[in-house]
Amino acid sequence: MTLRVGVAATPYGEHAIEFIQLAEQLGVDSVWVPEFWAGDALTPLAFLAARTSKIRLATGIVQLGARTPAMVAMSALSMQLLSGGRFVLGIGTSGPQVMEGWHGVRFDKPVQRTRETIDIIRAVTAGERVEYHGQVYELPLPDGEGRSIRSLMPPAHVPIYVAALGPNNLRLTGALADGWIGNAFIPEHADAFLESLAVGAARAGRTLAELDLVIPAAVEFTDDVDEAAERHARGYAFTIGAMGSKDKNFYNAAFTRQGFGDDVRAVQELWLSGQREDAAARVPIELGLKTNLLGTAAMIKTRLRLYRDAGITTIQAKLAGDRQNRVDTAAHFVELVDELNNETPLTSTNRS
């Protein structure tokens, strides 16, 4: 099994574009553009399609519910044609605060919405005449003037990756997706995610070896590991306290399944009470250290083995600093991963 390197990027401005071009030259496999409540994920990738030639272009992620499934499929087919087949569609349901507060779309039936969106995208991109009767989507609408339509774009395979944290969505991802995007992931507790993915895959008659398992992680070479770990841990205060409501936070649930339930509850309570500095200080340093790749080259390589031996296939590296620092970090990281790929891995049970 070969471990691949991706990079997360927000490619606005010439320096950011140049970084992606240099990353491509270094052998980085993919670039992942996020979508929050700033720029969208697709427009920058269309621009990158014209400025690169080999690197895969991935959304990380397109927010489901912000666009109709047909619109997502139309964009995906356009990107696949423009990029010469390099496009990867990363999708996810986001959360209630973003969907209801920013998009004005009810956050209901997220797993079912994901399932139906994948079904419709696959039908559109395969060139089928689309007729769909689901719990969330009905195409064409009943008792109206709509009719079943076939896309005028040439059919094309569009790899679909799903960002999933909860067990139900993980099982769905294992059954239907081409890849998984996993946040809040600690390789020592990989089974908290991979067991559900494997169950879904088995129900669909396949194995996890058929999925690209993508883990975003900050990559930072440093001798001051404690400082870096504490800094990244403090950054989780926003994720734990604000990325969801008090009763529904998918990140907190994922950390709880990995043994940090008491910690995330304490951090969330401090954040929601307005004590944000205290909340940041309460995040265990272990979370900053173990969800990222921080330290000397030897330390990072040791942790990379944990990801590889758990069955992870792509590290989506989040790089900080100016362009030269990001290029240097990417070059060093690609070199480490190449060295690792030339080693003999331990036998992994998670990819079966």
Describe the fold and architecture.
The protein has 352 residues and is an alpha/beta fold. Helix content is 49%, strand content 15%. Strand 7 and strand 8 form a beta hairpin. Helix 1 packs parallel to helix 13 and helix 8 packs across helix 10. The model has no long low-confidence stretch (mean pLDDT 96).
Q: What's a concise summary of this model?
A:
With 352 residues, the chain is an alpha/beta fold. The protein has two domains: 4-218 and 296-341, TIM Barrel (Alpha-Beta Barrel), CATH 3.20.20; 223-295, no CATH class.
Features:
two-stranded antiparallel sheet, 352 residues, alpha/beta, TIM Barrel, eight-stranded parallel barrel
Query: How far from one another are the termini?
Result: 12 Å
Q: How many strand elements?
A: 14
**Could you name the ranges where pLDDT drops below 50 across 5 or more consecutive residues?**
none
Can you count the helices?
13
Oligomer: single chain
Q: What share of the residues does DSSP label as strand, in percent? A: 15-25%
Principal-axis shape: globular
Helix content: 40-55%
Average pLDDT across residues? 96
> Could you name the CATH class of the largest domain?
Alpha Beta
Rg result: 20 Å
